[in-house]
Fold this sequence. Notes:
The protein is mostly beta strands. It has helices at residues 2-28, 32-35, 42-45; strands at 64-70, 76-81, 87-91, 96-100, 113-116, 124-130, 137-143, 147-154, 159-168, 178-183, 195-200, 216-220, 228-232, 240-242, 249-253, 266-271, 275-276, 282-283, 287-288, 312-314, 320-325, 349-353, 366-372, 378-385, 399-405, 409-414, 419-425. The chain has a single domain, classed as Neuraminidase, CATH 2.120.10. The chain contains 3 helices and 27 strands. β2 and β3 form a beta hairpin.
Amino acid sequence: MKKILIIVIGIIVVSGIIWAGIFYWQNLRGVWPAVLPPTGNIAEVINQSADNTTGLPLKLPPGFSISIFAKGLINPRVMTFDPDSNLLVSITSEGKVAALPDKDVNGVADSVAIVVGGLNRPHGLAFRCEGNAAVQKCFLYIAESDQIAVYDYDRENLRAANKRKIADLPNGGEHFTRTIGFGPDPLTGRGQVNRLYVSIGSDCNVCNESDMKRAKIFSMNPDGSDFKEFAKGLRNTVFFTWHPVTGQMWGTDMGRDFLGDDLPPDEINILAANKNYGWPVCYGQNIHDSVFDKNIYIRNPCMEPFETPSHIDIPAHSAPLGLAFVPEDIEKGKFGFGPAWPKEYWNNLLVAYHGSWNRSAPIGYKVVRYKLDQQGKYLGVEDFITGWLASDGQALGRPAGILVLPGGFVYISDDKAGVIYRVSYK
């Protein structure tokens, strides 16, 4: 009897090892660029040549160059500019928000100033100011994993104080980041930019949520009142922005894991009030996830007007994060110097692909350019910055947040290399 028991246990152990090996080979053998430390210090080797002749890693289109704006940061994520053009960034893993002033406007941060600390995984940042230029009071909004709070912002000393919570959020979960931004009226997409939006990811890879605040975007007044659902069925829309012409909200959304290398697609969605974008039952162009959803339906559960398809499908596991539209840049840039963006870039969309972790061959680890017409119609896609993923399958960094400014400037946060890049057009 004892011998039989040992044999049974041995069979179970061997079967478990075989299953784990198969699972790893099918889903996780491309995980190493995401989890291993950077293969080198990108601040020392970055390609700063506009014509890309140095042979160093990052490659850009002709006329663009890239440099390090700030380094030595720990997992920088969301960026925004304060009213005086100082760059602020959330340092999620360290529970703080930092300011990176560039007073001499030389394209390199002068210092790292801690705006506020002791936070619960802060992510989203937004500013709102009241009054005229002579007597103006500004407020910094910060989205932590469990709440949104507003602070009085000291513009001279780059400090936030007098914290007031305006909204409770579901804490933690598999997707714990919370992103915020001020935008127009939820129904019309027009009018004053006085509604605060927040995205809340799912609590799981794929499931039926028990918390009704999960996998959705909500909007509210600046004081947190009139908190209401805007859009749902969004597994993890970490970043969103507004189209400069149509006023529509656009967001990147990450598809579920463990359906193989090529399913489901990640998404770019045009987000509208009271729409359902399908998760967990549907993905992409209204494709039914029959692996998860075993229900039998009288009608197709994934079809308009019940579910809204993605606007653009992205290769699975690319992990799209930051996105930003290129302005119609007729005059010089925000800082009063430099050339304008080339006209062929106007109203195009730049998206940061953070990069895969559950794919047999790594994908992503780049910034891409989506070619769009003035109304947002998709015309094509091409790489804008590549080179973070090395030929040996390791990674120098992972682009996360992205800001686009007039004058041909782009700021990109890299939460693996711990730097912020500054791209400029010459």
